[in-house]
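During the first year of the project, the team set up a workflow for recording each protein of interest as an amino acid sequence followed immediately by a discrete structure-token representation. This format lets reviewers and collaborators read both layers of information side by side without switching files. As required by the reporting guidelines, we include two representative entries from the current panel. The first entry is reproduced here exactly as it appears in our internal archive.
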Amino acid sequence: MPKVSVIVPVYNAEKVIERCVNSILNQEFRDLELILIDDGSKDRTAEILDSYAAADERVRVIHKPNSGVSSTRNLGIDEAKGTFLQFLDADDWITEDATKMLVRTAEEKDADLVVGEFYRVVGDNLSRKGSIPADRVLTRKEYAEYMKQSPADYYYGVLWNKLYRKSILDQYAVRLDAKVSFCEDFIFNLEYILHCSRIAPLLLPVYYYVKTDGSLVAQNMNLEKLLAMKTSVYQYYDDFFRNVLDEETYRRERVDIASFLIRAASDEFTLPMVPGTKKVEELSVEVKPLKGEIIPNVYRYSKMLYGQYLENAGMLNDLSRSDVIVFLAVDALKKTRSIHEISLLTGLPEPAVLTSLQVLLRKGFIRLDWNPLSASVRTEGAAGLIHDIENAGNDLRDVWLEGMSEEERRVLNNMLEKVLKRLEKRLGVEDDRNHS
């Protein structure tokens, strides 16, 4: 049985579906099934989906008459065999480590729901979107308090930035209402959250959401009908808070809750002049095969991949990649005499090292004494960062060892141990392991 079922409803998506499916099948997390449901497409979508099923045993394709996205997703939920469920829309895609990070968060924090950040894509521009700054497990009531501050935010309403437990969906018969065509995913989330006790925000973008002109306003929906539908959604929203909040708190905050009715669903703007906006291509670098010896290329590729994993560790702790690299250097050196020494070890300019030290100090990850300059990084506040850095190393190791037998892994580890000892000896590195 797969650990994760990824569900993608598809309708007339021949121009975009390959990007979506490839992003799922190329996930670092491999223990998944992909359920592609063709909702009566009239273009080449069915043919494309079937070709994926023929090429990869993890792919299941279901063809059905057109009935809409909600009933299509419900069919995917019914068919899913995974412990966790993940949803995508056909014109979007996910980061290479999206499923791995969502599952890791759910398992490490024993969460009923994981909610990740995402990239909003408009044309060639994108910006990172999130809502909850808390890097800790939230109760249902705490999550509701955050949602109440920005109820129309896509972060809370959509399905595609979240990881659900199949057991909860089945136990409480939580499904999408096929009769509702406005905020049906938001209503689904409200019902699901009522059965959650532990909700974990993931402070890492996992999804690329492509902005399209498919809103109700863009479809020129009759204003009276739109208002009626929003009123219906508000009733779900109001009932949710009646269940979550005690009566006194509900009375005190009912005006804030009612304000949902006059707000439009929003994910803010992504324009070239808005701070934080980037070009899509800035997030990935095209790497072509490098000519040359094995050792230089293994070094280059491993350094690039490890850098990506360290950047994730940084984002999870509100740090830049440079901040994490400086943290690693200070932790390794233990006692340093100058910023110049850290600069030599990291390859970063001294001003950048100084800036990162200030950030790490402010966040309580390190403690510095300046006579001489020394650092103690094993502060209590650094535990989460250290954990995420260790995960980065484990992720790189998993890539190295993927597809190897246990005997091959044992042999490689032994060889790497010998290589490490020779490098330490050549560089005159004192082995602290013998003096602990």
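The second entry, processed by the same pipeline in the following quarter, appears below.
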Amino acid sequence: MGHRIILLGPPGAGKGTQAKVIAGKLGIPHISTGDMLRSAVARGTEVGKKAQSYMNAGLLVPDEVVLGVVRERLTQPDAAAGFLFDGFPRTVEQADALGVILEQGGRHLDNVINIDVPEEDLVLRISGRRMCKCGASYHVKYSPPKIAGICDACGGELYQRADDTEATVRERLAVYKKETKPLIDYYSRKGLVRTVDGGVGIDQVTAAIMAALE
């Protein structure tokens, strides 16, 4: 049974956490677009140099460069047994191109796991986060500090990151839905999508994903 997997899920669904755990259990690389681009840049490959010129200019790296990095990453020996993509593909165009890259290598996708969490839960999860400059983090509902607004560890004042405010979170979720809904439809038509409930505890979500991969 191959393990060529794409993990989809909205901001705040715990996708990064699940990706690491699942990839570790299956012994396959967890590949996120950001890590992949940084690694290509660090290795100084042709594609890496191209990606770097965009990143240095603060521009989005265009599809053909991202796909070049993906193609290169999939030829590395650790990806022979499978891979878990997290945050890629983002669009139907990228999904089409990934299909072509895999076909050229005589491979195909096995599963697309969609972590589903109701929007209100996500808004609460993300907008409730509070940080301290000492690095400690809290959640107003799930892991509050002993004294509201004050860090247990250093007594510093807690703050909310600008991209964690409710308005920003709703905006990010709207973008995600617009970008990703077509992808879920695209892979559903191929019979690849398994949806799991991401509204439960971390371990339960992991168990549900492992069961969906069976």
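For the second entry, the following points were noted during internal review. Strands lie at 3-8, 30-32, 82-86, 111-116, 129-131, 137-139, 193-197. Residues 3-29+76-213 form a domain with the Rossmann fold fold (CATH 3.40.50.300). Both points are flagged for discussion at the upcoming steering committee meeting.
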